[in-house]
């Protein structure tokens, strides 16, 4: 499978990555990953759990059999989804939010009250995602198939006008979003302060695989200064015609700070 056509198979607790995209910390794991057809990765903390080799599954952690969600991941590994050939038309299944309640309880967030206050929509995770290239840090950028195609078209169109767009972040799981909030709490920030900048786990558009945080070479990530760049001016003038919308302008009704870097693909070109 060419990496351009690679997919990430998603389960509630474990992601199944195609081989060749993840790096190991130790020499032993590196040798296994070099031969792996797929790699099982724990969503909660990114731990690599097992390598799927031609001769069978090779554990990368002790007590793999006790890993929560392993059975679901093995079923998905045995019956992977077919990659849709018509990216804008396919119906990608979504996962039940089985871990979301645990994430919210651990963070002290009342999900019902949060949804009512912000009027944000609950975002489900796709059951599989397509590789949309790499972000500015060299990490795999995962998006829904239609959004991945839309992102490539956006980047190519910008390049044709002499503008370089860099992805900072694409798909994030509920668990990953919870980790962002946890780290900020550990630094001493208040939960209300955090939720003005980051959506609560379950309500980030990044969960859907349709959102991309965008920057430009030499610009800091996720800063309002992006608004003053030629890249942002180009996006304002052209992104709508390519199906992208800036989700959080100034004075948006959700209580989220102005985010000129955060754009969502909905596949509907605007002409206004």
Features:
272 residues; alpha+beta; 7-stranded antiparallel beta sheet; 4-stranded antiparallel beta sheet; 8 helices; 11 strands
Strand proportion, as a percent range, falls in 15-25%
Strand order of the largest sheet: 5-4-3-2-1-6-7
Mean pLDDT: 92
- Please bin the fraction of helical residues: 25-40%
Backbone CA Rg: 19 Å
Number of strands: 11
Question: CA-to-CA gap between the ends?
Answer: 40 Å
| Main sheet properties | 7 strands, antiparallel
Shape designation: globular
What's the SSE pattern? EEHEEEHHHEEHEHHEHEE
Helix count from the secondary structure assignment: 8
Task: Provide the structure class.
Answer: alpha+beta
Residue runs with pLDDT of under 50 for 5 or more positions: 84-89
């Amino acid at each position: 499978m060419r990496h351009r056509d690679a997919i990430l198979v998603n389960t509630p607790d474990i992601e199944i990555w195609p081989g060749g995209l993840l790096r190991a910390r130790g020499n032993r794991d590196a040798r296994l990953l070099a031969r792996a057809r797929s790699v099982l990765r724990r969503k909660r903390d990114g731990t690599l759990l097992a390598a799927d080799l031609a001769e069978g599954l090779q554990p990368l952690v002790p007590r793999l059999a006790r890993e929560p969600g392993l059975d679901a991941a093995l079923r998905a590994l045995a019956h992977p989804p077919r990659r849709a050939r018509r990216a804008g038309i396919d119906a990608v299944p979504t996962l039940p939010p089985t871990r979301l309640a645990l994430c919210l309880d651990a963070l002290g967030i009342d999900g019902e009250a949060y949804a009512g206050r912000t009027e944000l929509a609950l975002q489900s995770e796709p059951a599989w995602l397509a590789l949309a290239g790499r972000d500015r840090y060299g990490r795999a950028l995962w998006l829904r198939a239609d959004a991945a195609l839309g992102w490539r078209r956006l980047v190519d169109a910008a390049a044709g006008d002499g503008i370089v767009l860099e992805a900072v972040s694409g798909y994030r799981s509920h668990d990953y979003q919870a980790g962002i909030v946890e780290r900020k709490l550990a630094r001493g920030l208040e939960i209300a302060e955090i939720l003005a900048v980051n959506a609560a786990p379950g309500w980030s558009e990044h969960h859907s695989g349709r959102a991309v945080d965008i920057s430009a070479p030499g610009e800091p990530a996720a800063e309002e200064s992006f608004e003053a760049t030629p890249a942002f001016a180009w996006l304002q003038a052209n992104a709508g015609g390519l199906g992208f919308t800036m989700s959080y302008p100034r004075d948006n009704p959700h209580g989220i700070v102005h985010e000129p870097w955060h754009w969502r693909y909905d596949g509907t070109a605007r002409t206004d």
